Amino acid sequence: MEYQISDGNLQRPNLYKVYNSEGYSSNIIDGSCAFYYYRKDHLGNIREVWRADYLRAGTTHIAATTNQMTQYYPSGLPWSEGMGASSQSRKFNGKEFVEMHGLDTYDYGARGYYPAMGRFMTVDPLAEKYYSISPYAYCGGDPVNRIDPDGEDYTITIQRDKNNEITGITFNATVYITGDGASTKRAEELNGLAKETFKSQESNGVTIGFNVNYKYDKKISSEGDLQVGKGLNLLTFNKDNGRSNVDMDRDLTHSGYNGYIFNSKDGSSNYDVMHETGHFLGFSDRYFDYKDKNGDTQSKAFTGYKKDLMGTNGKLDLSPNHYANMYEFVLKQPAVQQHKFLKQINGGDNRVDQWFKNGDPNKGTLK
After folding, report:
1. Is 165 exposed, middle or buried (0-12, 13-18, 19+ CB in 10 A)?
2. Could you tell me which of 121, 116, 38 has the C-alpha nearest to residue 79?
């Protein structure tokens, strides 16, 4: 909401504007309420503001009109060309552009962004997560394809061509390893293996890719230690007997997944680690359990999945059906259909489980 001081009366400010994600209304209290609507591009930048027609003072008809038009440099700095620049201040990424006293900075909540330089003016509060990126960088230096909803994490969700058609979807997962034999060396080994296992593949003309990053930090041994950001995964190695698994029954708005690798002193079963990582990314099992004639539990892969990572035979192959299911699930999301970039529900890295609160990309689409 925005208030306006009239007649110098600081004790009785008047309600002037009420904002929402699609626009705002003004002149709330004088009987001439007008409604303004945003037209946005794929990054959520407000390109145009138009006012619907309305009755002034309940009698005079005021025709609809375009109230503001704004073009941007890639960094978000508004061009000098345009119209109605001062009529409302929400612009790049839908953020408020504060021009008072020459500040010319966008308010991103966690910190201010100075578009003339393409840099934030203070250090990233999550800088420890991204050692290779400047703590002042905006969207990792790629503001055309990425957004930063609050100045903390940037998110890559969709790549589009000049015709606004989707050309690529990338899912990222950060997996901290802990437990028996976990180490920086093992994390590096798993990073190399993940690159060979979770390769990019085309589905329906769109490149589906995965970026898995294993990390080891001796200070992190439980979910409660993951304080650098929400939405992080924890994979625990355990030398005891048991069945490796991922805890899927969680409130994903508060934390990521916990996974467990049993019968291994250092997570040495590459297949088990990659299989459980597949669950982190959103893949479902492609096998079923049954009782044999002796009453023992056995597992059998679905038809066509005998060599699949999510099957049971220790193979690291991925069926094209996994990629197709991911593609179909993403396209069903309302935010994607509206050409909006998503901020993870979990608030951390860019994993497909940002949508798990609404469903599982594999359920109901098994092929």
Report:
1. exposed
2. 116
Record the pTM: 0.51
CATH number of 158-355: 3.40.390
Instruction: Find how far residue 116's CA is from the centre of its chain.
Output: 26
Q: Which helix (H) or strand (E) holds 70?
A: strand 65-72
Phi first, then psi, for residue 139 (nearest 5°) are 55, 35
Closest CA to 72 of 61, 62, 85: 85
Domain boundaries, the chain: 1-67, 158-355
Cβ neighbours around 13 below 10 Å, total = 12
Report the relative pairing of strands 245-247 and 258-261 from DSSP bridges: antiparallel
The DSSP H or E segment spanning 325 is helix 320-331
* Packing angle, helices 184-197 and 270-281, rounded to 10: 70
> CA-CA distance, 181 to 265, in Å (whole number)?
6
- Type of residue at 263: N
Q: Which two tokens stand for residue 157?
A: 């969700």
pLDDT tens-digit map of 45-93:
899 999 998 877 777 888 999 999 999 998 999 987 778 888 889 999 8
Q: Which pair of tokens denotes residue 344?
A: 């993870």
- Distance from CA of residue 245 to its chain's centroid? 25
The two structure tokens encoding residue 337: 């259909």
Asked if 326 contacts 168 with a C-beta cutoff of 8 angstroms, the reply is no
Q: Is there a contact between 63 and 34 (Cβ–Cβ < 8 Å)?
A: no
